[in-house]
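ARCHIVE RECORD
Type: protein–small molecule complex
Small molecule: WTA
Source of inputs: curated submission
Record status: active
Notes field left blank by submitter.
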Amino acid sequence: MLKATSVLLDERRIFKPNYELVEEAHIKNWEAELEKGKDLEKYWAEKSEQFEWFKPWDKVLDESNKPFYKWFVNGKINLAYNAVDRWISTDKRNQVAILYVNERGEEKKLTYFELYREVNKMANALKNLGIKKGETVSMYLPMCPQLLISMLACNKIGAMHSVVYSGLSVGAFIERMNDANAKVVITADGTFRRGKIINLKNIVDEAVLQCPTIETIVVVNHTGSDIEVSELSGREIFYDRLIEGESDECEAEEMDAEDPLFILYTSGSTGKPKGVLHTTAGYMVGVATTLKHVFDIHDGDLWWCTADIGWITGHSYVIYAPLLLGTTTLVYEGAPDFPDPGAWWNIVEKYGVTKFYTAPTAIRHLMRFGEKYPQIYNLSSLKVLGSVGEPINPEAWMWFYKNIGKEKIPIMDTWWQTETGMHMISPLPVSNLKPGSATMPLPGIEADVVDKNGKSVDLGKGGYLVIKNPWPAMFRTLYKDKERFVKAYWSEFPGLYQSGDMARKDEDGYIWIQGRSDDVLKIAGHRVGTSEVESALVGHPAVVEAAVIGKEDPIKGQVIKAFVILKEGYDMDSSLIGELSKQVRHELGPVAVIGDIEAVEKLPKTRSGKIMRRILRAQEKGEELGDTSTLEE
Ligand code: WTA
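STRUCTURE (tokenized, with ligand):
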């Protein structure tokens, strides 16, 4: 049993492992695994043996051209083959691979054999649309089986996918689509959200007008609504029509270990979103190994990660890792509190979810409704809980631990990023836990907290979070922008990967993530770049200039606080505030939550004209302004 050493909300408390769980865990001895991880190449070589390779690799790690690392050099492999085809000849053939559930209580189950046939049909259809190895297919889809099928179909034929989160809107969509040069986009009529149907097709219709490379728009008729999909434009075709008559056999493309797998755009501190590029074999080894170890996946598990597939958590841990391990992945479409705030716990009980992975913002949201809802349901199937996306505050950790984990289920607070592809800093079920700390780097990973000069800080001190060794699921570059890749991640501290996060190491060596060190916001766990919001604001005729910072929010973690300089003749009244919020929402989507907009006369800038958001942040919090020597008059 897990035992609290104190009942007060104090970060010093330590929670011991659930020893019953540890007994059956893949990793029973953390120190021993850590020791193994020190021989990096041997460690990851062993982990690569879980897959079927078309041709074995010659060398685990090629470090000859840092930071352009290569993993599993010359190996040939296919992800979809290993995630789906491989299971068809085993007793998992008729096991459910994907369990789709939505907020209306509807469900759809796809066994591995059914998934195999669906993936093959779509793979053949994509080939018929002219998609070749190395080309990109964009997707703008809700959490529906066709999204997973389409992503796997891309892998099967060696095409890359670029999934755009369906909570992003027109402006964000255009930028990402054009950068990826996609010929085909797959979308749906709409998605279910809080009892409504949200139209997605109209966003795509508006966006593709400015996406010249798009030749075909594939539309999933998902909600059965009467949203009109005309196949008349010549560019549009229904998904069902597209795959009709396609063969359910399709040979897997032999991919080089380092062939590109997908692009996923994420916000950086400046300029355009970054096209994070992941490649094939290392990613497979990294995500499968971490899911297996951190959530201790076994046959018979029902895995539920609540993240949207449009983000890295969804890519790695809703679809790829669970299928690569041959487990059942639950895919949920809808809000956490619809039809009522017990919706998720109802699903846990109804299907017998064993491992549950969610985000602090969702926990804080559900906390508001009290302990009543989790108490209605039998949650005894649960064995491991997890959290990701932002620091989990001890109050939310405790609520999760008590009400969902019933004080005996450990919480895996996993720190990682779009760029890292896989969990990096996280406990394992065998770890001692401290509420709010992601604990320590996983075996095989070396993370540290350093000062400005790249020197390790003393225990107890804060600094920049860096990674010291390469890891298999690391991103290989930014799409079409090697220079930015090197500059943004590998230049500040030579030889080290700069995460962009601040952290502190406590006296036991536990890592406490403090948030971003750059101008990236985390709104409800979603990464939003200040520059993207600013350019949306400046797109409004009333705004001359804008600067955006994060403002603390009890549920969402952060929301947007915007400072704008207005053109003459405009006043910041409620109608303008409404218009500006609408403008941001239209460009970026509902992820960009505006908390506050303030009109100002001037923005603090450096002499070279860069906005000093640090000064705005300090002012907002009533803190000292710090070094202002570079501030213009
Ligand atoms: C933050 C999400 C504290 C962090 C997988 C990181 C976290 C950014 C945690 C990456 C955690 C993620 N504790 N902070 N457990 N997990 N973060 O790319 O600031 O959407 O840099 O990847 O989320 O966000 P991204």
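CURATOR ANNOTATION: Residues 217 and 519 are 35 Å apart (CA to CA).
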